[in-house]
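Hypothesis: this fold can be encoded by more than one sequence.
Test: take the structure tokens below, design a sequence, compare later.
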């Protein structure tokens, strides 16, 4: 029977779940970073070690673990393609979702579940949103810009908009920008993508955030995106040229930003929103 006590318990359970980050000590952060080149400077900087056998056989994903500020850090990269025989990084939503799902499941099975998914990587920025090359964004939400399903209900499902952890205070403290990140499986874009990016007020364009946030939401783990701009989507230069030109400086910038964000979220005084 529903007693006053049950209501009280439910009330406090709701309170705890809505204030997670402020009230709890984060002991384990999962950091999915799709490309090796994006992850390497950060992995080296923290002295994280490759964990053999972390993922099931036949999967290309790699996990690096260590401690930072008394917090366990697991960086996951999506590894290199062996299926198509290209040897390139497994970019895009399919591998990002699967790698993140397996890493979260493994962290649960190990009895030390990750309490925050901090997805780091590069993104396209928008001059119409005041973005510039090298800007660091903490994301406020995610959506897809290439899932067009013009059937009532499925249209909303396709866009897959999720509000994520509110990083406003953290961004102000650390001097970073905030904005919505929209995701698609192409580095370039077509007019329809741009319509969806505008409708969703995108400040960042990437190839995995919305799928990783979907997996995090499934596990009831908060998602935070940390994205560095390598190219300007609505600028004059071809995306691929700008991206390749700026990839390494962006990875360095991630190496600088990620420990600061990590220290902020693991700070026991809990200044996050
Ligand atoms: N990663 C870096 N720049 C990007 C862009 N313009 N689109 C998608 N992913 C990106």
């Amino acid at each position: 029977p529903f007693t006053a006590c049950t209501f009280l318990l439910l009330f406090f359970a709701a309170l705890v779940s809505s204030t997670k980050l402020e009230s709890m000590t984060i002991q384990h952060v999962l950091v999915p970073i799709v490309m090796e080149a994006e992850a390497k400077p950060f992995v080296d900087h923290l002295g994280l070690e490759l964990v053999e056998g972390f993922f099931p056989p036949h999967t290309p994903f790699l996990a690096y673990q260590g401690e930072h500020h008394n917090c366990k850090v697991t960086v996951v990269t999506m590894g290199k393609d062996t299926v198509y025989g290209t040897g390139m990084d497994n970019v895009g939503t399919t591998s990002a979702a699967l790698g993140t799902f397996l890493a979260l499941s493994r962290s649960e099975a190990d009895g030390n579940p990750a309490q925050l998914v901090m997805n780091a990587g590069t993104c396209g920025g928008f001059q119409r949103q005041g973005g510039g090359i090298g800007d660091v964004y903490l994301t406020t939400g995610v959506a897809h810009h290439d899932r067009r399903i013009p059937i009532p209900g499925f249209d909303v499902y396709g866009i897959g908009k999720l509000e994520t952890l509110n990083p406003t205070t953290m961004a102000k403290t650390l001097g970073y920008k905030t904005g919505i990140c929209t995701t698609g499986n192409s580095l370039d874009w077509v007019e329809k993508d741009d319509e969806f990016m505008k409708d969703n007020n995108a400040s960042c364009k990437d190839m995995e955030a919305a799928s990783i946030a979907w997996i995090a939401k499934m596990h009831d783990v908060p998602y935070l995106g940390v994205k560095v701009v390598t190219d300007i989507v609505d600028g004059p230069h071809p995306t691929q040229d700008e991206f390749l030109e700026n990839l390494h400086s962006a990875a360095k910038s991630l190496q600088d930003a990620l420990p600061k964000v990590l220290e902020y979220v693991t700070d026991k005084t809990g200044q996050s929103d």
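Residues 239-266 form the longest helix (28 residues). The CA atoms of residues 138 and 226 lie 5 Å apart.
Hypothesis status: open.
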